[in-house]
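HUMAN: Ready with one sample?

ASSISTANT:
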Amino acid sequence: MQDINNKVVIVTGSGNGIGKGIAELMAKRGAKVILATKYDDEGSALENNMMEMGYWARYVQTDVSNEESVKNMVEEVLGITGKIDVLVNNAGITIFKSILEATLSDWNKVIDTDLKGVFLCSKYVAAAMVKNLEGGSIVNISSNHAYRTLPDTEMYAAAKGGINAMTRSMAVSLGKFGIRVNAVCPGFTDTNHYQRWLSEKENPGAIEKEIFDLHALGKISTPADIAELVFFLVTDSSKNITGSDFLIDGGLTARLYHSDKF
């Protein structure tokens, strides 16, 4: 298995959930991991925990929707490590409201983090990669909502569809610099966010059984599952893969419809 020993890896939104799983796996495999996340309590706690386990990790407070914050993050990382090899654009939020009820403020919040954040982080990190003359890899965490979606998810689906389209264009633009760009599109993933959402339902057990039944493999993903795919995409094992998007959803999106009658 290819490793990423001493590679500098930025993971945005790494304080919890999928981002945390990615950051932990990268550090375990030998990377120097930058925890570019928004909230001090999460970032500091994860940094301390990873360092106690003997991994290299640094928390850099980052609001991906704010250009100055992103620029400062990149400058700070370069000051610490001198280079950036990998960017994982994971930071994202969800607001599920019908287009009839969603406000412009709601739209801006989702797009600013989920789509503009990918643009800003990629813009400034790619510039550093180009200057370093050693290429690099960018992985954008998208969603299966970029392919199939549900009612009341217009804003989220638009952002994730935009990420997939931007991934392809970035791959074409940056390929001449040796920078590969790909997208990973998870479905249901067992995170704290998922567990909170499930706990708010009237009958969590029944809801979760229905969710599992919708998946061809009878289970949802874990952050570790997502992290393994991201790891593959940032190593030489995928050295000729760029401009692609990868579903990782246990076969959920493959299903045409669900029926208990046949």
Summary: Helices lie at 17-28, 40-52, 67-81, 104-132, 154-174, 192-199, 204-214, 223-234. The chain has a mean pLDDT of 96. The chain has eight helices and seven strands. Residues 104-132 form the longest helix (29 residues).
